[in-house]
Amino acid sequence: MAEPYPIDDDEINVEDIEIRLLLEAIYQMYGYDFRSYSKASIRRRVMHRMTMSGFASIMEMTDKVLRDRPFFVTLLNDLTVNVTEMYRDPEFYRAFREDVVPVLKTFPFIKIWHAGCSTGEEIYSMAILLEEEGLYDRAMIYATDIDKNVLASAKKGIYSIEAVKQYGDNYRRAGGRHSLSDYFTARYDSVIMEQRLKRNIVFADHDLATDQVFGEMHVILCRNVLIYFDRALQARVIRLFSDSLDMGGYLCLGTKESLRFSGQEETFDVINTPLRIFRKRQLLHHA
Amino acid sequence: MGASWGGLNAYTRILSALPADFPAAILLVQHQHASAENRLPWLLARYCQLPVIAPEDKEEIQPGCVYVAPPGYHMLVEEDGTLAFSAGRAVLFSRPSVDELFLSAGAVYGKQLVGVILTGANEDGAKGIDYIHRRGGFTIAQSPVSAEAPAMPEAAIKTGAVSRVLDLEAIGPFLAEQVPG
C-alpha cells in the first residue's frame, strides 16, 4: 500500500503537471518524446518506478533523471514496456502465412519493417516463418526500436531457456513446420538464435514520435506499440506507415489496435479483422 | 467490477438483474488466460439487456454499455473518458488486473465511481478498492460466504475500505436501485 497515489482532485492535478514536467525533462535532456503517450499508461509506469526506487515525489525523480543517466536508462525501460514473446498471438502468424505469404511469394524482393521490435523475440519469429516459407533469402527485415538497449539485446538474440520452452507451444500453434529448437543453440540456461537468421536483419533505432518515413516497405509490423500512444500520435504514426508502404503493402497491428480513430481507415483494406491485418489500397478512389 | 475464480457465474447473476435503461457504464475485468479465445463478451450478452462490448484501444466509454477487458491486456481509463490498453507486466499474476483498472478509473471518476469486487482466489483488486474509497467512490464486496472463492473479497474487506458487503444475489438489484441516472 506504500504507493503514493494522489487522493483529492488538487493532488491529481499536481500529479498531472509533475508528469508533464518529467516527460518534458526527458525530451529536453535525452531527446525521447513521451509527451504524446497514453496518460493512463504513463502514469501507472511512473508510479511503478517511484515505488521501486523509493522517491517521495515525481519532482524528486525528475531531478534524478536530469542528473543521472543510468537512472534514466532504467526509467526508459519502464516507459517503453518491453514485454514480448516469440509468436505472440500465434493465430496472427498463422493468418500471416495464409493471407500474406502467398502474395509475398510473387515478389522478387521483400522489405519488412518491424517497428517497436523490443528485445527481438518477434523478429526471430518472423525470420523463422520466412525461412520455412522459402522467402528468407529475398527478404530484408528492418528491426527498429526507440530504445538502443533493447536493440542491443535483440541483435544478440540470446534468451533464457525457461522462456523459450514456453514459446514451443506458440510456434506449433502459429503453424511452425519443424521444431523451434532447430533455430537456436542451447548453452547452460540460455539459448542463442542461429546466426543464419540474422543475416538479413538490420537493427536501427527509430522513434515513431519524432522520426520520419522509413522507405518503400512491403510489410510493416507494429504490434502492441500504438496502444501506448494517444489518439493524435496514433494518427501521426498510421500516416507515417501509410507513407512508408508500397501500394498494396501490408500493415499488421496488435489485436486491440484499430484504424478507427486515426481518420485513415479509407487508406487501407481490411484483410483479417480479428488479427488486424490491413493492406494499403492500390488505387485512389475519386468521388 | 473485478472477479477471478467463479467470476462468470457472478457476472451473469449481476448483469441479468440490471434493467435495459441502466444509466452507468460498466467496466469489467475477469481473470483469464491470454491464449483463450475471448468468448466472455458473447457469453455475458446472453444474460444481459445492456450491450456488451469487446472494446478496442482508445474507444470512448458510453453510458449504459458493458465493457469487458480482453485477455492478455490491462484495461485503463484515460482522463478523456476513453479506454487504453497495456500489455505490460502481469500484476499479481493477472493481466488484465483489477487493480490496474480500479487505480486508473479511481483517478478519473473520483466519487462518481462504484467499485465492485467479486469472487476470486487471489488479492487482486484490494489495492484498487482502497484507492476508489479514498477518492470518495462507493465500494462493494461480494460477501465471502456467497463467493465461490472468498480470497479476493476478503482481501478487499480487510483494507477497511469497503462501503457495503452484499450477497451475490443482492448486488445486481442494489446497483439497479442505487446508481443514479
Total beta strand runs of chain A:
10
Task: Considering residues with a beta carbon less than 8 A from a beta carbon on another chain, report the largest interface and each chain's count.
Answer: A-B, 31 and 32 residues
- The gross shape of chain B turns out to be globular
* Rounded Rg of chain A: 20 Å
Number of helices of chain B: 6
Using the coordinates shown, work out and report the CATH topology of the largest domain in chain A. Rossmann fold
CATH topology of chain B: Rossmann fold
The separation of the N and C termini of chain B measures 19 Å
Structural class of chain B: alpha/beta
Averaged pLDDT of chain A:
93
**Can you tell me the number of structural domains of chain B?**
1
Domain CheR-type methyltransferase (chain A): 7-281
InterPro entries (chain A): Bact_Chemotaxis_MeTrfase, CheR_C, CheR_MeTrfase, CheR_N, SAM-dependent_MTases_sf
Keywords (chain A): Methyltransferase, Transferase
Pfam family, one (chain A): CheR
